[in-house]
Design brief:
This is non-specific serine/threonine protein kinase. GO terms for molecular function: ATP binding; protein serine/threonine kinase activity. The chain has about 950 residues and is α/β, with parallel strands linked by helices. It is built from 14 helices and 52 strands. Among the domains are: about 120 residues, Ribonuclease Inhibitor (Leucine-rich repeat, LRR (right-handed beta-alpha superhelix), Alpha-Beta Horseshoe), CATH 3.80.10.10; about 170 residues, Ribonuclease Inhibitor (Leucine-rich repeat, LRR (right-handed beta-alpha superhelix)); about 100 residues, 2-Layer Sandwich (Phosphorylase Kinase, domain 1); about 190 residues, Orthogonal Bundle (Transferase(Phosphotransferase), domain 1). The relative contact order is 0.04. The structure holds 2-acetamido-2-deoxy-beta-D-glucopyranose (NAG) (6 copies).
């Protein structure tokens, strides 16, 4: 017994020695082969690959098993290589395909590998998992991949592969995930019986979707959007019992939607928008009990909407706008309380909406304009407490506007224009204190405008034109101090124009024409320094034309014709409709009548989406008419939300910066320079001047307009205040509030400044940026992706409060559409996927925010942590070691906040955009924890 117990460990030792010796040689061969590949890489000196080295001790054999990213089996043979996101740069030409007989998993995704995928890859005969996605591979997909009979996962997305998907891939039986960037769909694909996910979106795939698609019984996700696929949706797709997500949008699919799709009992997401689909929507869609997203817009669909569309009670996003749908809103939508967004505009829907619609507690946006809907505006809208936008313009609504609508306090946009509404505007509408846009024009509303209107102090755009409103214009109108656009024309307003109109100093367009207004034009008009268009025609105004109009230098068109006004012979001005202030005016105006006006709506910036279109139009228009005019007045676009009108602001800035002399330059960016300008009022502004525009090159102008659009619509305490913009004679610039402490980056770069930025202030900056981003992503409609969050774009005021600036690259996103763009943003802050996929989402901002949050803690750009995102964890960043040393250590309660921010930052830096939290979640977490 004793001898045996002694013998056992000995035996074990011998066995171990033997086996290790035995395997060491295999292992060494594998190591050498791998090192050969390493030697071919440009990134061989990258820290991660430093561990890939030969032992210095000649007695110990080199084994790769302890190397970074490499895993071995019990026999020390390599089974897995995972270098995802390690910055590996080079080719696969020297990859040891023939020397790694046990390699089962190869993950080289998110690197900088280029060249072709060698056909020798087929020598990795045990391979089950191959991920080469997000590199720069080019050429064809080698058909030899089909020899990898054990392959279950193949990711090739995010490369520059071309040619078609090799038919041979159809021989694979166990492929579960397929992702290519280009090619066409071979019908052999149907042989891949185990396939569970197909991601072939944003390619140049063309031709038909093969009917064999219907054989992929395990498919759960099919993303084929943004291709040029044509022909019908194969009926066989109805066999895909496991399908959860079917995305076929943005193709050229035609024919009708097959009824068989109604059999997809697990389907939650169905995107068919932007195709050429015709025929009616099959009633069988109502069988999809789990459906939560149904997007059918921009097709040529006809017939009625299916009754049972929300039978499962899960429908949240439903869009079918821009089709030719008829009939009523289906009964099934009446109690569909899950709805969040409904777009049905521009169809021919006909039905009584007071009966067909119910109460939707989660509904944020509903758009029913341009249909033939009738009935009354239901008091139920007041119970839709999440509602932000309600549009039922250009239908046949009748009856009164219910007072209850005032209960839906979140509404920002209410458009009931061009219907047959009667009665008075209810006083309670003034409870909509979030309202920015109110369109009630083109109805038969009567009575007086309620005094309470003045309570809607955020209103930017008010159109009550073409109604039968009477009595006087209420003095409270002067309280709408932020409004840009005010149209009360074509009504029966009488009495004098209230002098309080003079308080509307941001007004750009004022139309009071076609009323019965009497008395004089109030002298207070001279305060309307932002005014560009004024129409007072067709009233009973009397007295002299006030010379104050002459002082409105921003005025562009004036119409005061058809009144009883006394000519003011001396009156002149730059505006159309006023004679120019030169003694050689050619046209003799016959005193008191008709200043002919070409209504040239230069600016209606205040209107949500119309703004950019209007601006583009204005730009274009300007160009078209350049040759015809000697006067260059039309080449200029001025816009100001300051007490100064746009033109004055422009002149002041030119003066204050001595026509942009270098000494006033306080910053430089890719799109231009930033100047500091002190106005004669003493106010200091920051001026972002764009590089001169080249003729025929729209990019910069688009850039400019993007920024303007985003800025006009965004108002938030953590977003830099926008004052105006000017475009004239080659200069285009934006004017912002000047923030005394400059950018967060510049504060960090100066020691004494950076010391003043103590831990509490830094925590506060995080809060501010989170608030601003959450607002842009989740409270703006459509959401705004900033796309260039960096420490340079976070400006600090005297109290070190953060203000987000530079929407230069912001782009308004259409919710749920794919957004592709040229890379925007700043190197070092760009989300990794953006460099490969060009897909811009809110999650790109989330990533950049993560970088910024780390930067706040470290006190410098946190490059060392970002070089290796795939292994980044909060634990791998010891707080005590990384804290900005220029500050004294934080007190314990702040330490907890910093640890929280660190964790938050790391979660935002996840390589996978889907795994990053949304800014909404981040803001809730921040609210709860710091
Ligand atoms: C890596 O570093 C070694 C030694 O420092 C140097 O000789 C070699 O050229 C470097 N390789 C590359 C690709 O930079
Ligand atoms: C070689 O790799 C080991 C880890 O495997 C590492 O500790 C060592 O520093 C590396 N040697 C060189 C010269 O980089
Ligand atoms: C490779 O590593 C990354 C990050 O650690 C991980 O997400 C991924 O699943 C790994 N790949 C494989 C095939 O294990
Ligand atoms: C690939 O296989 C070819 C023969 O088919 C051979 O000539 C070549 O050396 C192999 N390359 C590698 C990297 O194994
Ligand atoms: C839409 O359908 C109508 C007939 O219903 C047809 O005349 C029209 O050409 C179609 N439009 C498109 C874009 O297919
Ligand atoms: C709506 O009502 C119908 C019948 O009244 C019912 O079958 C359906 O399940 C209801 N839907 C929801 C979402 O409650």
């Amino acid at each position: 017994m004793k001898s045996l117990t002694l013998l056992a460990p000995l035996l074990l030792c011998v066995t171990l020695l033997f086996s290790s010796l035995n395997v060491a040689s295999d292992s060494a061969a594998e190591a050498l082969a791998i090192l050969k590949w390493k030697a071919s890489l440009q990134s061989q000196n990258h820290s991660v690959l430093l561990s890939w080295n030969t032992s210095n001790d000649p007695n110990t054999k080199t084994s790769p098993c302890a190397w970074f990213g490499i895993h071995c089996n019990h026999a020390d043979s390599v089974t897995k290589i995972n270098l995802t996101g390690y910055g590996v740069k080079g080719t696969l030409h020297s990859f040891p395909f023939s020397s790694l007989p046990n390699l089962a998993e190869l993950d080289l995704s998110i690197n900088e590998l280029y060249g072709i995928i060698p056909h020798n890859i087929s020598q990795l005969s045990k391979l089950t998992y191959l991920d080469l996605s997000y590199n720069q591979f080019s050429g064809q997909i080698p058909p030899e991949i089909s020899h990898l009979v054990h392959l279950q996962t193949l990711h090739l997305a995010g490369n520059q592969l071309n040619g078609s998907i090799p038919q041979e891939l159809g021989q694979l039986k166990f492929l579960t995930d397929l992702a290519f960037l280009s090619g066409s769909i071979p019908s052999e694909l149907g042989n891949m019986e185990s396939l569970s996910e197909i991601s072939l979106y944003h390619n140049n795939l063309s031709g038909l979707i093969p009917t064999s698609f219907g054989d992929l019984r395990h498919l759960t996700v099919a993303r084929l959007y943004e291709n040029q696929l044509s022909g019908p949706i194969p009926e066989e797709m109805g066999n895909l019992n496991s399908l959860v997500d079917l995305e076929l949008c943005e193709n050229q699919l035609n024919g009708s939607i097959p009824a068989s799709l109604g059999s997809l009992s697990n389907l939650e997401i169905l995107f068919l928008r932007d195709n050429l689909l015709s025929g009616s929507i099959p009633n069988e869609i109502g069988n999809l009990m789990k459906l939560s997203v149904l997007e059918l817009d921009h097709n040529n669909l006809t017939g009625n909407l299916p009754q049972g569309i929300c039978r499962g009670g899960s429908l949240e996003y439903f869009t079918a706008n821009d089709n030719q749908l008829t009939g009523p809103i289906p009964q099934g939508l009446k109690n569909c309380t899950s709805l969040k967004r409904v777009y049905l505009e521009r169809n021919r829907l006909r039905g009584n909406i007071s009966e067909d619609l119910g109460v939707y507690p989660n509904l944020k946006f509903i758009e029913l304009s341009d249909n033939d809907l009738y009935g009354e505006v239901s008091p139920n809208w007041g119970l839709c407490r999440s509602l932000q936008s309600l549009s039922i313009a250009r239908n046949n609504l009748s009856g009164k506007i219910p007072a209850e609508i005032g209960n839906s306090r979140q509404i920002q946009r209410l458009d009931l224009s061009s219907n047959h509404l009667v009665g008075e505007i209810p006083k309670k509408i003034s409870k909509l204190t979030s309202l920015l846009y109110l369109f009630l024009n083109g109805n038969q509303l009567s009575g007086s405008v309620p005094l309470e209107l003045g309570l809607m102090s955020k209103l930017l755009h008010l159109d009550l034109s073409a109604n039968q409103l009477s009595k006087s214009i209420p003095e409270t109108i002067g309280n709408l101090s932020m409004s840009f656009y005010l149209n009360l024309s074509i009504n029966r307003f009488s009495q004098r124009i209230p002098i309080q109109v003079g308080k509307l100093t941001t007004l750009v367009q004022l139309d009071l024409s076609h009323n019965m207004l009497s008395g004089e034009i109030p002298g207070e008009f001279q305060s309307l320094q932002s005014l560009e268009t004024l129409n007072l025609s067709h009233n009973n105004l009397s007295g002299e034309i006030p010379s104050s109009l002459e002082k409105l230098r921003g005025l562009y068109t004036v119409d005061i014709s058809y009144n009883e006004l006394q000519g003011n012979k001396g009156l002149c001005g730059n505006a159309r409709g006023l004679p120019p202030c030169t003694p050689f005016s050619k046209k003799g105006h016959n005193s008191n009548k008709t200043f002919l006006v070409v209504m040239f709506s230069l600016l209606s910036v205040s209107c949500l989406l119309i703004s950019s279109i209007a601006l583009l139009f204005a730009f274009k228009r300007k160009k078209d008419t350049d040759e015809e005019r000697q006067s260059n007045a039309r080449d200029e676009i001025f816009f100001s939300v300051t007490p100064l009108n746009g033109r004055k602001l422009y002149k002041e800035i030119i003066r204050a910066t001595k026509d942009f002399e270098a000494q006033y330059c306080i910053g430089k960016g890719g799109y231009g320079n930033v100047y500091k300008a002190e106005l004669s009022s003493g106010d200091v502004v920051a001026v972002k001047k764009f590089h001169p525009l080249h003729t025929g090159e729209m990019a910069d102008q688009r850039q400019f307009l993007n920024e303007v659009r985003a800025l006009v619509e965004t108002r938030h305490r953590n977003i830099v205040k926008f004052y105006g913009f000017c475009s004239s004679a080659g200069h285009s610039f934006l004017v912002y509030k000047y923030l005394e402490r400059g950018s967060f980056a510049s504060v960090l770069s100066k020691n004494e400044e950076s010391e003043k930025l103590d831990w509490n202030k830094r925590v506060n900056i995080v809060k501010g940026v989170v608030n601003a981003l959450s607002y842009l992503h989740h409270d703006c409609s459509p959401p705004i992706v900033h796309r260039d969050i960096t420490s340079n774009n976070i400006l600090l005021d005297l109290e070190y409060e953060a203000h987000l600036s530079d929407f230069g690259t912001a782009k308004l996103l259409n919710p749920d559409s794919s957004n592709w763009s040229n890379i925007a943003g700043t190197y070092g802050y760009i989300a990794p996927e953006l460099s490969y996929t060009m897909q811009v989402t809110e999650k790109c901002d989330v990533f950049s925010f993560g970088v910024l949050a780390l930067e706040l803690i470290v006190g410098a750009y946190p490059g060392e942590f970002l070089s290796n995102l795939s292994i980044l964890t909060a634990e791998s960043i010891p707080l005590n070691n990384v804290l900005d040393q220029s500050l004294s250590p934080p007190p314990p309660e702040v330490v907890n906040k910093l640890i929280f921010i660190l964790k938050l930052a790391v979660s935002c830096l996840n390589i996978n955009p889907k795994s990053r939290p949304t800014m909404h979640t981040v803001s809730q977490l921040v609210f709860d924890h710091i």
